[in-house]
Amino acid sequence: MPGRADRVIKSAAAGPFCDFPGQGTVVVFDLEITAWEGSLARNWSDPDEFMEVVQIGAVKIDAAMPMAELSSFEALVTPEKNPVLSNYFIELTGITNSDLISDGIPFKDALARFFAFVGDACLVVSNGSDWSDLVQNADWAGLDWPFEDDLFANIRPCLAEALGLPESQTVSSTLPQHLGHKAMPGAHTGLGDARAIALAVRDLRSLGRL
Question: Which residues does residue 203 pair with via DSSP β-bridges, in sequence order?
Fold first, then answer.
């Protein structure tokens, strides 16, 4: 299975993050992917450990300050290679196998809905290279990549520098606490973490640090 770095290098989905545009809309998104105890540390290298998308969460925000949230998006995805979620994943995210049975949709439908949500946004950002997992899952599903080249960008290096943290500690769900806020609802869910990232972006931009 190709490593994350290989997928990013071969993908034209993302470009380097330079700055936020002065107008228009920006999408901040986050993924939850299948995981097992220790899978992050071993980079999902055990047999049958595939980084399948389970949830896509996103907010669309005004690019101009104060970067108000305009709309939100959430889709629960039924993984195909490992359709039964691990206990580790369930405890981390609160997403259960029952949730997938009742609300899960195929990845192709979730990607199509996310594409429609992004619409004419001029930038799509994540705290990490989440787009690479979208690219890989699209490849597994035999789907054409629907987004324009260089639409996505990783803002983690900029967030880490602005917060004075190593990138390994720039975790989406804890970003608000680093800026003096209480923990936000929905930690380790796609939408909850997307909103945590957006809050950090607003604060850091208002402070002139991003």
Answer: none
